[in-house]
């Protein structure tokens, strides 16, 4: 069967005479229409009950882009085309797309190589790819959450993960304590001074940051002088008081945490971290991608936007390492899903110290695309399978 969108009438139709087809959480009927000349056809595999799975990728508007859409459009395009090939209607939508009885979204056309605005069925799955934390804190987003519940839409990953919320949740559970560097929220000069006196070498990280933005390190020397490092430069201070007087405004205008710096294991003179991709599957959290990022231009972070480079995981993998990463992934998924809501997909940044101990730096509920093609291929497969599992839990896939 094929389906197509008729632009003049703003309706979806299918091409199989005498067949019934329903789509989305509201089970909207897709009618048969014989004449589909000059209309883009989309191959669809019908699931049991003549139900077409519908996935809405939630993002924000961006008038600066030709499509008017914000977020990771490359990921949205790749995922949309992959799902369409497997019989799943996928589209991108924004918070203002909802109307009383219908909504509008954008379907990517491989024929015209652009996003086409359409009237679309309500989604079964809302894949949350909002790129801004501020939007998730807005009234409009909270209104959307209510709307999703009213129409029985499954929200896939409810929000960004605050670094300190992650630390607290994992600490309270206790099973991953050995993988957590000592961490505290920066509230005032006294708590930071005491923390620095205890650990001597620490990181300062924005609680709501990503990709290494706004990260600093501080080293307290034996003579109590301080070395303050950013990604681009270093500064020395004769004591903590002079440091705080200079930097307090920047550090207090956003929420920061302080964290003990581990002494990282190095390859070829550079630190490296693991990036693992994780997906939920039939009650378990499965590692679906493993990568390594190595620093180059600075030794504060390994993120590629900050000068880091890719390194083959295969070159340093071991059975023991695989088992450790699998255990961390499973426990993080269990604990954080209880804390913030169901996580179907996330990535973890994990460091390794000189003794081989692993440390969790960050859990990201909205992983960006990996540069490794194999990981991205695996990601699309697992997302597709998980969308099916969540919508048709009793469906037996071959």
Would you kindly provide a brief summary of this structure?
The strands form six sheets. Strands 14-19-15-16-17-18 form a six-stranded antiparallel sheet, with helices on both faces. The model has no long low-confidence stretch (mean pLDDT 90). Helix content is 26%, strand content 31%.
Description:
By secondary structure, the chain is α+β, with helices and mostly antiparallel strands. It has helices at residues 73-85, 133-136, 139-150, 163-173, 189-199, 240-252, 319-340, 373-391, and strands spanning 2-6, 11-14, 22-23, 28-29, 31-32, 41-43, 51-52, 54-59, 89-94, 103-109, 114-120, 125-128, 154-156, 183-185, 201-206, 216-220, 226-229, 234-237, 256-260, 266-267, 270-281, 284-294, 309-311, 345-352, 358-364. A 6-stranded antiparallel beta sheet has the order 14-19-15-16-17-18, with helices on both faces. Strands 20, 21, 22, 23, 24 and 25 form a 6-stranded antiparallel beta sheet that branches. It has a 4-stranded mixed beta sheet with strand order 5-2-1-6, with no helix packed on it. Strand 24 (345-352) and strand 25 (358-364) form a beta hairpin. The longest helix is centred in the C-terminal third of the chain and has 22 residues, at 319-340. The protein is elongated, with a radius of gyration of 24 Å. The two termini are 20 Å apart. The model has no long low-confidence stretch (mean pLDDT 90).
